[in-house]
Amino acid sequence: MTQVLLSIGHGYSAQALARRLGEGWQVIGTTRSPDKAAELARQGIEALIWPGTDLRPALARATHLLSSVSPDDQGDPVLRAEGAAIAAASLDWVGYLSTTGVYGDHGGGWVDESTPLMPSTKRGQARARAEAEWQALGLPLHIFRLAGIYGPGRGPFEKVRTGTARRIVKPGQVFSRIHVEDIAQVLAASIFRPDPGAIYNVCDDDPAPPQDVIAHAARLLHLPVPPEIAFEDAPMSPMARSFYAESKRVRNDRIKRDLGVRLRYPTYREGLAALLKAEG
Questions:
Q1: Cβ contact 191:181 at 8 Å
Q2: How many domains does the chain have?
């Protein structure tokens, strides 16, 4: 029997999942752009323009649902537009991609899935509200709190090569991160081992200062390590600066224990080496 995944907001992480699912799966993916829809179709995805398309026919066919759409100031736009139809659908598995930003600032301390949500940024607060909206529907829901995503096309090498990479240093600042292929691995493991109500942190084993990642990328390229810039002196957009408002180390024990996941890229070192090798 063919399984059907409806992927709302079929972007970077969801596309990695679709490639991983392979035979026996049909993927319906939504996008806002006709150009992106054409590209998804070339990947074998049944592409829908949304908003703008009635999703009820797709929901009637779907066995699985993944939402990657970010909340806005009014809440979750997927549930605002399609919540009633989603709640009425017969689905075996529902996934919602959230962020580790829902935990807020812990001064570099460790958090896990049982840590109370105390987001300090508007972005994190919106995600926490969206999680609660999805939980209120009574679906076979699985929430995935993603760390900073990197992977093909989203690595530091280009900026290091062009000399635009900056090693911004804020004492005590650490970030957790995750390779997109490991996100896909976690999502697939959950689909094949569903546990409605489960929440998973999706991150690697090595929370690290951002300047260390840039320095390692430079060394892999045999280029000079960019000089350090104090956080207070760095010219940054408000969005970029907001990422430095919170520092925490995120535990990933649950994806290993409950889903049997063995990360392909347990630290940024393996991940960056693989990206560079893939570039040829």
A1: no
A2: 1
